[in-house]
Amino acid sequence: MKKIFFTAGILMLMLGMTSQVCAQEVKEDVNDGQEAIVVMPEHSAEFPGGIGELMRYLRENVQYPARARDAGMHGTVLVEFVVEKDGSISHITVLNSVCEPLDEEAVRVVKAMPKLKPGDKDGQKCRTYFQLPITFELK
């Protein structure tokens, strides 16, 4: 029987930001005209209950797409999104694509996530980036 494993990189979860913009404190999101997105918040956004609960959420909710499984497709889909001040998720982007079915499943699971605890800077809630690697592996 094939076992399916989903893992997330703890370091990326804790940082929740792209390495290309770490030197900046905020990054303007020119596409939505809203408030700037803070790249280096004092406290990063986090899943309710922490990393352990996020891992549990992924184990319970990610479904390996049959056509990807049948084709033997596997790998890590890296999804980036914005955690808004109210904890909602927006601007979901696949940064590292594996194949369409796995990418779509990763995006679906992120869209279905509960609201996160938003990041903060200077004691104020702020918009922040969050990166989530989702590994699809057949064994």
Could you walk me through the main structural features you see in this protein, from its secondary elements to its overall organization?
This protein has helices at 10-15, 51-61, 66-70, 100-111; strands at 4-5, 26-27, 37-38, 75-83, 89-96, 119-121, 124-126, 128-138. By secondary structure, the protein is of the alpha+beta class. The protein has one domain: TolA/TonB C-terminal domain (2-Layer Sandwich), CATH 3.30.2420. The strands form three sheets. A four-stranded antiparallel β-sheet has the order 1-8-4-5. The radius of gyration is 15 Å and the shape is elongated. 27% of the residues are buried. Mean pLDDT is 82; it is low at 1-31.
Please outline the major beta sheet: 4 strands, antiparallel
Helix coverage percent:
10-25%
Distance between the termini: 8 Å
What is the arithmetic mean of pLDDT?
82
Instruction: Count the beta strands.
Output: 8
**CATH architectural arrangement:** 2-Layer Sandwich
Structural domain count: 1
Which blocks of ≥5 consecutive residues have pLDDT under 50? 1-31
How would you name the CATH homologous superfamily?
TonB
Enter the CATH topology name.
Answer: TolA/TonB C-terminal domain
SSE pattern = EHEEHHEEHEEE
* CATH class membership: Alpha Beta
Q: Measured on Cα atoms, how large is the radius of gyration?
A: 15 Å
Residue share in β-strands: 25-35%
Strand order of the largest sheet: 1-8-4-5
**What's the tally of helices?**
4
What would you call the structural class? alpha+beta
